[in-house]
Amino acid sequence: MTERVVLAYSGGLDTSVAIPYLAEQTGGEVIAVAIDVGQGGEDMDAIRKRAIDCGAVESEVVDARDEFAADYCLPAVRANALYMDRYPVVSALSRPLIVKHLAAAAKEHNATIVSHGCTGKGNDQVRFEAGLGALAPHLKVIAPARDYAWTRDKAIEYAESKNLPIDVSAKSPYSIDQNLWGRAVETGFLEDIWNGPIEDIYDYTADPAVTRDPDEVIITFDAGIPVALDGETKTPLEVISELNARAGAQGVGRLDMVEDRLVGIKSREVYEAPGAIALITAHQELENVTVERDVARFKRTVDQRWAELVYDGLWFSPLKNSLDAFIDDTQKHVTGEIRMTLHGGRATVTGRRSETSLYDFGLATYDEGDAFDQSLAKGFVELWSLPSKLAAARDARVKG
Q: Between β-strands 215-222 and 225-229, what pairing exists: parallel, antiparallel or unpaired?
């Protein structure tokens, strides 16, 4: 029986070249699988046809935009997922979804090998292979760029020798990965971390320095999930898409950072994530209103670890599953509305409203109607301070 290889196919040079190359190396048939996670750009039907023209025996395109929005982006909102407290795990979020569909395609086509276009220097090789190890550990993985030292020059030479229907002349100075949740730009002149980003690298966001009228939006949440904008019910995909457009038009969501890669090196990355930053900012503020103090304090630790696990390719890990259960329990009262002003590159919360709010006006006010019994505070402060007083007295006694 002929061996079959399922290839994660993007339609670009590297994965197009991989089709005939994998067939030669394995003696097998290649099935190209392209996953639409809202990356935009080229028509997916054209990508599907290109794979066939490059020698794939079958080519599939999976429209996973709704699935990505509902099952991957929204959990990231509920977890306030910001790696290193800044990066909303843009690329990392899409990888487990792609892995899921690769494993399903391998099962459907009786494939024994899965292939991807990642290099040995980045995070994505780990994300793909850790995910496959959890979902389909019997599959062998081949990464031509990593396993066969496949450089761009070699890929171009190979494409020309095979007359593959791909344009090898246009070379972007950057490495770009994008999806519904955001856009990542690296390499080129950005590798010198003293160089500032230029406007030409941005696509999801407008220049925040350009004067324009502010945009006010009301985001409605139900159990931590955004369900409406300005009172109009929307699907997760619609919410994220609209906020990408509206927040992006105001320059919201630009990030320029040096991050710690999983493989141990530091990397300079420029990100655009207008919808993600707006939603996480709104969700964090609604949690401030509706989540009890000690739960909120502990959840901040859980949120950080959740983002690290996703970044590190451990979406399908036991710890991630357990953290999901905790986060799910914390969200039962995170219901209400947040009013935000999108302007000048910032998403600023200006109003909060919730039927499950823990904010009590009568306790918080300093004016007439104050329901807080201040006479109770004196004894509370004395008892709260007692351990520190005892320790200070002990230290003075020992030193004496």
A: antiparallel
